[in-house]
Amino acid sequence: MNFKKQTMNNPVKIDKVDLQILRTLQGNARLTLKELAAQVSLSSTPVFERLKRLENEGYIKKYIAILDAEKLNQGFIVFCNVKLSRINQEIATEFTRIIQDIPEVTECYNISGSFDYLLKIHAPNMKYYQEFILNVLGSIESLGSIESTFVMDEVKHNYGIHI
Fold it and tell me: What is the pLDDT of residue 24?
């Protein structure tokens, strides 16, 4: 489900009830409308209207299920710093287009500093990642260099944001 994004030119104010709805949904997006309404101390109709407004204004981007990467044999996590050989708008646009189509890359950030992009990659194991570097990332023409950091243990991972 994709919702309309809020524009910077027309910011919409949200109140403490809206924030309470958002916090509650971050904890459990599977609540029924009735359960959500009870948790924010309103009836279902105003909560439904607020929820639709929050979706339409882009505060809620989508609803997802959080899967267990280990159980799905995708628990080998790598943060990969990418430096492009050259950078301009056309090259950056093409790189981000390519990255969108690589399922192993679950997150991608354009960053400042010594590298241009930070990728989060899920793989089954080191051998798979090695093949991925050689055959997938290595085939990107604008790729200059990479630096991989392997996750040994996840200490903290909050899916929500602090509001």
Answer: 96
